[in-house]
Amino acid sequence: MKNENVRVRFAPSPTGPLHIGGVRTVLYNYLFAKKNNGKLILRIEDTDQNRFVEGAEKYIVDSLEWCGIKFDESIDLGGEFGPYKQSERKEIYEKFVKQLIDNDKAYYAFDTSDELEEMRNRLKSEKKNPQYDAVSRLNMKNSLSLSTEEVKKRLDSGETYVIRIKIPENENIEVNDMIRGKVVVNSSKLDDKVLFKSDGMPTYHLANIVDDHLMEISHVIRGEEWLPSAPLHVLLYRYFGWKSPEFAHLPLLLKPDGNGKLSKRDGDRLGFPVFPLQWVDPKTKEISSGYREAGYFPEAFINMLALLGWNPGTEQELFTMDELIEAFSIDRVGKSGSKFDPEKAKWFNHQYLIAKSDDELAKLYMQLLEDKGITSELNFVKRICKLIKERANFVEDLWNQSFFFFQLPESYDAKIVKKKWKENTPQILIELIDRFENINEFVAENIEKVIKDYLSEKNLGMGQVMNVIRLSLVGSNKGPDLFTIIELMGKEEFGKRIKLAIKCIENEK
Ligand code: GLU
User: Fold this and answer.
1) Quick one: residue 160, left, alpha or beta (phi over 0 = left, psi -120 to 50 = alpha)?
2) Which of 264, 344, 363, 491 is the catalytic position?
3) Which label site among 62, 236, 406, 407 has the fewest CB atoms less than 10 Å from its CB?
4) Does 264 qualify as catalytic in the annotation?
5) Of 358, 344, 256, which is closest to residue 300 (Cα–Cα)?
6) pLDDT tens digits, residue range 324-383?
7) Atom of ligand 1 nearest to the CA of 25
8) Atom 5, ligand 1: which residue's CA is nearest?
């Protein structure tokens, strides 16, 4: 199906950094839009002024840009359905909520918070549902229970009020969900939710429905946490006489052990980021780590997220964004939550790292070296990358695997010295320096041959030299293929390091 009229939206509230679950929601919206030749809209839902967090909107925009998710309409891009920020659409909501009141689908309520609490406590003690609804509303102070004059008087005197939706009693409301199928909820379970407040601001429910309608949203694809609100939304569409969009409620992202929703707090507690970019809380200055800063490639991050909840129905795991668009379908989004797997996340990054050309990787690594104050030759760094990239998940790991190419050993592993450094070791090493003089083409293969010939000539075992050479060059028993290390360091550096090791280790004795 290529539906020209597909219009989907991502509608975050700028109440903090965007959780990776939110990134997955916008990603699925993006894939769905692109797959269907549709449009993706970014709408900022900022009607709850109390929850406004400085910098959150910019954070959301920056994060999605880093992810490579492109919108068709937004505050920055504009579009014919703007403004794309709810606080700039206040007058629109007012008009629509009046329409509901005129049609007896909503009503004014003047109850104070104490009165509301008293009502809830009373209903609880009577073992009834503690909510504002068809049963309880007539005992409260609202335009259904008070006389018209009384209501007018209160409104004219500027009394604080809210406007509540009038939910019908005992009626089955159906939500058709593209992932979950038909979900039926009895209206008696629903609260007469507040739609509008006397400060002139709509609540989420009203603003969301009005905007989805006016912006001609065809499919609402959002997190499962909004499923309980969906019956209310269906009812609002009906009250307005509007066609409801299709709904798809995405399964939750779960903690690695599957025990509950992956929360904002989990990441740094469990040792992995839950935010795309690092976030510094503007008030507490608390820092939450981000995938970007942790060294993830955006492509790897997106690939990983795409597969948390959706499966392509094949064994394929690596997808470019274009391939995701091609393969994506809502039918293959599961109903149950997906466990977040931090190790798998690293695996994805590793796959993207090894898929990079040596040239591309070397350029990234050169930047890191530069930050450490090290200048090096691109060609040299390229050869290093080729040698060690299999051992790295992140560009940062390249350093752990190859720092010894850029600095002399600061110490020599004492355990190896004790076990492997013998009386005749210095002599063997010095003789090897001499032998290397005769190698014309100083490459791993020839180096290996010269060492092996020397050993058999002297009746020595591999174990007697390989460890001490590595120790002298690297300072430990770590690192990739030794012959290649020697090749890359070169004859001169080899000689220099061997002599330095002899000097240091012999002096220590
Ligand atoms: N503003 C809501 C949020 O913060 C949007 C929910 C929806 O997509 O309907 O997630």
Assistant:
1) beta
2) 264
3) 407
4) yes
5) 344
6) 999 999 999 999 999 999 999 999 999 999 999 999 999 999 999 999 999 999 999 999
7) 8
8) 11
pLDDT at res. 4: 57
Residue count (the chain): 509
Q: Which atom of ligand 1 is nearest to the CA of 233?
A: 9
Q: What dotted CATH number matches 90-196? A: 3.90.800.10
Averaged over 497-507, what is the pLDDT? 96
Residue 222 Cβ < 6 Å to ligand 1: yes
State the distance from the centre of ligand 1 to the C-alpha of 225, rounded, in angstroms. 9
- Model confidence at 190, pLDDT cuts 50, 70, 90, reads very high
d(CA 13, CA 44): 6
0.85 exceeded by pTM: yes
Express each pLDDT in 435-492 by its tens digit.
999 999 999 999 999 999 999 999 999 988 999 999 999 999 999 999 999 999 999 9
Q: Where are the domains of the chain?
A: 7-74+205-254, 90-196, 264-355, 358-401, 408-508
Q: Is the CB of 208 under 6 A from ligand 1?
A: yes
Atom of ligand 1 nearest to the CA of 22: 10
Is 143 a pocket residue for ligand 1 (Cβ < 6 Å)?
A: no
* Predicted confidence (pLDDT) at residue 265 exceeds the cutoff of 70: yes
How far apart are the C-alpha atoms of 177 and 175, rounded to whole Å?
6
Distance CA 26, CA 223 (A): 10
Nearest CA owner, ligand 1 atom 3: 12
Q: Is the CB of 11 under 6 A from ligand 1?
A: yes
In CATH terms, 358-401 corresponds, of 2.60.120, 2.50.20, 1.10.8, 3.30.70, to: 1.10.8
Domain 408-508: CATH architecture, name and number where available:
Orthogonal Bundle (1.10)
Residue with tokens 């009386």: 423
Interstrand relation of 246-250 and 219-223 (parallel, antiparallel or unpaired): parallel
Q: For a pocket test of ligand 1, which of 15, 221, 226, 232 has the largest count of ligand atoms closer than 8 A to its C-beta?
A: 226
Q: Which fold has domain 7-74+205-254?
A: Rossmann fold (3.40.50)
Architecture field, domain 264-355: Orthogonal Bundle (1.10)
